[in-house]
Each structure stands twice: as structure tokens, then as C-alpha cells.
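Hi support team,

I'm opening this ticket because the web form for multi-chain structure prediction keeps timing out on my end. I have pasted the exact lines I submitted so you can reproduce it. The total is 684 residues across two entries, so I didn't expect it to be a heavy job. Is there a limit I'm missing, or should I split the entries? Thanks in advance, R.K.
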Amino acid sequence: MSSTEISTLGEFGLIDRLTKELTTVNASTLRSVGDDAAVLSYPDTDVLVSTDLLLEGVHFDLTYVPLRHLGYKAAVVNFSDIYAMNGRPRQITVSLGISKRFTVEHIEELYVGMRLACQIYGVDIVGGDTTASRQGLVISITCVGDAPRDNVVYRDGARDTDLICVSGDLGAAYMGLQLLEREKVASAGQKDFMPKFAGKEYLIERQLKPEARRDIVEQLAAAGIKPTAMMDVSDGLSSELLHICHDSKVGCRVYEDRIPIDYQTAVMAEELNMNLLTAALNGGEDYELLFTVPLHCHDAVSKMPGIKVIGHITREELGCALITADGNEIPLRAQGFNHLAQ
Amino acid sequence: MSSTEISTLGEFGLIDRLTKELTTVNASTLRSVGDDAAVLSYPDTDVLVSTDLLLEGVHFDLTYVPLRHLGYKAAVVNFSDIYAMNGRPRQITVSLGISKRFTVEHIEELYVGMRLACQIYGVDIVGGDTTASRQGLVISITCVGDAPRDNVVYRDGARDTDLICVSGDLGAAYMGLQLLEREKVASAGQKDFMPKFAGKEYLIERQLKPEARRDIVEQLAAAGIKPTAMMDVSDGLSSELLHICHDSKVGCRVYEDRIPIDYQTAVMAEELNMNLLTAALNGGEDYELLFTVPLHCHDAVSKMPGIKVIGHITREELGCALITADGNEIPLRAQGFNHLAQ
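Hello R.K., no limit was hit. The queue was backed up. Here is the completed structure from your submission:
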């Protein structure tokens, strides 16, 4: 890989280079990069706006995260927020703070990943800001999406007796992070170190290259099911479920033996002597969809691939609890990823 | 001021505290903070999206920038981008990266400034992201605005013989920065240091508390004048004018003796032995509007308070030049603020 100092291009040269290949696919994108603002058109739908700030050393470690994957993930986690509202992502703006150790080629790698994510999910890059940073890499992405009128799903719509559903499986991204951290420690100071990832590829992929569950949102729409509440699982199942229950003024019961967990996640928890249930409930970064549907949807959602019914909504005074495999009831607590907590 | 560690509240507690007083004023804001995305409605207008990333140590120095002013400015510079498209700002999302030395009260101060700006300009805070930072304060704001169909003004619409206009005056914000830097150096190590700002209040205000030129956009609309091209002056007049000429495939002539400069700016340049014209052309952060109008609008714009005709658009092959007070022609060059340049 050649190595071009960013200062040789300057801000406008860098932006030109990063955006010259950009094309747009959405009819709602009237004008893209190159002016003070992007111009969009949403005459017939609600407009969704979501934003995410990723900081080096807090959200990612470039020791083991390739820039291409980082770009992909930074885009996808924003798409995930839009799907979690039952919408479709359409545009993103990308702001980058770049410190001196990054070259033009580095930033191009990051863009390759973002462009790939945009291509796969049908999203246009329509603007942004690029600036120097004294503090490592800063990535701020804002995603604009749309949803047909009255189709948006909020956190506050869950009702007593609704079923609680989750897509995919939980805890794998967190275990992938533990694995990457372990191998980083093991590699310290060693030349030609080969990390031991055999048999754990799924965990690595879940951490480094998560996907947003467009398929689930489309599947529900095709079946005519509109969830009563929905969130994506970024901070951990417990934390998200407590949000839904708090905002909807309801309680919940979820069943330990219904929580979907991949085999590799279980093996890894065993190997690291960690509590598997804690990882699945509080691990974070799964980017699965957690949603509630009316009870009469039971047969329909039970048949859908990739969706598991894990419990049900109760009246508020019953509180939020997990029913363990041996039948005990323990209160749900949010121990999720919280960078600002003590 | 009391001092509450952010870790005692955690991310969600901090967000609750910052957003509990937020109300919304725009009909286009259907749902604000509190879900995975904000929900907006723009059935009859084009939607404008602009974004800005501000990093401590690069864009601001908290030695002399009060957090309240910083919040105000961070919001206003985004509004300015929307006005520069002939639009009206309606919503912002605010992402903050916060390092350990900031308390809850610090972040509340920042929000006081942002809320004040939003109140004055009629903008709703609808979402964002709040996270820990290892690297000082990070502020990323995305602004959504609207403009009636076919009313958006781009950079590429300037035509031969159009008049070049600018609002307000130029170079004062840059001189304000020089003054603040000078007093910072002078204050080093001194207790009870009193900075010398007497007679230079305007420069300080232009640097610390800039305004977006909503009044100009409204004035032009009231007179039925739609500019052919427009930008806000953030990087400096020369840089912005070259952007308009490049994108519009035209040349330009601007006249030194027409460039609007405040008396305090001139005095300060003299005092610092700096070239006044260079400061006015390349200073940056003026957040004035630079725009072009058809020649037949001459009488109308000439009569408008706060607008100055500084030159005219030419055919592309004539290039971009400044006509000095003594009649010489010198090529315009972009020497503006460019954090990523050599």
C-alpha cells in the first residue's frame, strides 16, 4: 500500500478523492456531497434521523480492527438504528477527525468499508465534514431514513400480554471482543504472532463485521406484522428491554432457556470462565432486533426463521424479571456497555 | 458552580438531565429524543442536511472559550450552512464525546448555549449520542432544515454578469481570534490577569458568538430575490468565491475598496502589523453570506441594509481576480483556514 500524507492533498483534495466515485441510488437524494448541505426529498414518508459518534480508544482499537471493517461497522450500526424504528436507511453524512498518523490510503480503506456497507444496504453518502484531529480517529455518522406514514415503531408501544421477540443470537459480539483482546495481550511484543481464531470465526465476524437486520424488518412487513415496540440490541438485551418497559410503562418476563445463544459463544464463555447468561443479557453490540408483537401473532412469528419468542410483557407492577432454567425469578438489571458509568 | 462527576449519572442519566427541559417548536418534529432515531415530517419541502465536527485543540481552545459560547457557536455554524442553501434550520442532533475532566455542570453549560441558539433560531434538538472520550471534548452536530421546492440555492448557479454580494463585514472573527491568542500568551502564569479587550468587543463577539444570517435570507425572500449561488463564509471569502466560480464554471472580479471591513478589524490589523486585506479575504469564521444575483437586481440589493455588492461574475476564461484600490489585478487564491493542509 502506498502512503500519501494527507497534508499533500489538504482538506478539499482529500474530500474530492474520497467522494469522486460516489454515486447515489435513492430517489430521495436530490443533491449529494459538494455544497453546504445535502438536499433530500421526502414528500410521502416520515423522515428518520439517527446519529452515532465513534472514538478511537473508546469504541474501537485499531490494533485488531482493520480500517475497512471499521468503516463497514460504523455505517451498519447507524442503519441498524433506522431499521429499529421500522424504517429503511437512505442517506448518511460522514464526519471524520483524522490525526497525523493516518495517510490518504488509510482513510480510503475506511471509505471502502463504508461504501461497501452503503452498496449492500442501498444507502447514499451525501455529505460530511473532514478535519484534523489531535486525538486519534473520530467518526461521526448521521443516518437519514424513511418509513411510510404511521409505520414508525417506537419504544413505548409495548402492551400487557405482548410477546417479546429477538432476532438471531446474543452475546457473540461480546465474546468476539473478549477473544480479540485476549489475542492482543498474547501478541504483545511478539513478531509474526498468529492469533488463535480457529473454530471461533463467527465470534470475530459478529464483533468486526456486524450486519443490520433488514431481513427481519422486511419479513415482518411481508407478513403484515407491525411490532408494537422495537429497539436494536446495542447495549445488551437487559438494558434495551428495560428501556422498552420503562417507556411503555409495562413489566416483562423473559425465559433463560429461550435466549438464543450460538454454540461458539457458549464454548468461548466456558473457555474464559465467564457467565454465559451475563454475556448474552449484557454483552452489547449484537445489533439484533428486540421487538414486541400482539399475542395473536404468536403462530406467525414462531414460524419465521431467525426470530425467537423469549418472553412476554406484563402489567407494570409486576416488574421486569428473568425466569431462570430452574424456575427462579430474578430482577432484570442493566449492566450493559456504558462508557460513562462508574 | 457545583461539580457533579458524570460517572455518578452514567450515560442515560446524563442524557435525561440534558434533555428533560427540551421542548419542540417545529411542526416537522414528530418525535424528538428518546428513541433509536428522531422522526420528522417534510411532505411539502425539500430537506437539507448539514453536519459539522468540532474538536478540542483544533477548533476551539477552552482556555478562552466559555462552554456556553461554544455551545451557541457550535449550533449557529450549522444553522449558517442551512441558510447558505436558502433554507431554514429546523432540527439538530448533538453528539458529544466527553473526557473525564468535564463535570455534569460543564456539559449543562454547553447545552445552555445550544438551547439558547436553538430558541433564537427556532430549532429543535431531536437526538444525538453521548459517550466518553479519551481525547478532550468532541462535538458533532447535524442540522436538518427545509426549503420550499425549487428554492434551494447551490454553489453552481452563478452566471456571467451576475453581481457578487456579501453580508455584514469580513475579517473580524479572525482578528478576534488573534486578540484572544495574544491575551492568552500574555496571561500565562499570571494570577488575576485582566485581558485587554476595551474597544475591541466587536472582534471578541464575532469570534466567540457569531450569528447566522437568517435576516439576510428573509430579506432577500421578502424582496422576491433568489440568489443564483450562495455559500456562507466559513473558510474565508477567497476560498468560498473560488468554490462558487469553480462549481459554476465562471470567473469573477472583486474590488478591494468594496470589501466590507469594520473599523475595529482595521485597528487591530494595524496593531498586530498584519495585512488587513489578507485578514478580510482569508480570515474565516465570519459566517456571513456570499451570494450572486442577476444584474437586474442591482438597485434592489444595493438598497438593502447589511448587503454590499463587491464585484461581478465573468466568463470562466477571465479567471478569478481582485482589483486592488490602485487598479491592479491580482489572482484570487484560497489561503483560508485548512486544518489538513501543509
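A quick check on our side: The mean pLDDT of chain B is 91. Let us know if the file doesn't open in your viewer.
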